[in-house]
Specification:
By secondary structure, this protein is mainly β. The chain has one domain. About 5% of the residues lie in helices and about 35% in strands. The protein is built from 1 helix and 8 strands. The strands form 2 sheets. A 4-stranded mixed β-sheet has the order 1-5-6-4, with no helix packed on it. A 4-stranded mixed β-sheet has the order 2-8-7-3, with no helix packed on it. Strand 7 and strand 8 form a beta hairpin. The longest helix is centred in the C-terminal third of the chain and has 6 residues. About 20% of the residues are buried.
């Protein structure tokens, strides 16, 4: 399993059709999948999503960390990987 640091959103960065998932409890990831990668907050390293496949973590998915309130987004859009 890889631990992938997400990145903070940039000012004015609002994807069409996107939304922000809010992590309510620090010890409870927002998303749980069936892939090989865990995604962590860029600011504090808190686990936000576990066992995810890259295709599930698109730039439309944003997650607000319960520990530090940073809004995170995937570094690489999973759909970009599929095109390679």
């Amino acid at each position: 399993m890889a631990r992938i640091a997400m990145r903070a959103i940039r000012a004015g960065e609002v994807p069409r059709d996107g939304g922000t998932a809010i992590q309510e409890e620090v010890d409870r990831p927002v998303f749980r999948g069936n892939g090989a990668d865990d995604y962590v907050c860029v600011s504090c390293g808190n686990v936000l999503a576990v066992s995810m496949q890259p295709e599930q973590m698109t730039k439309k998915v944003r997650i607000r960390c319960a520990r530090c309130s940073t809004v995170n987004v995937s570094v690489i859009d999973g759909w970009e990987l599929r095109k390679r």
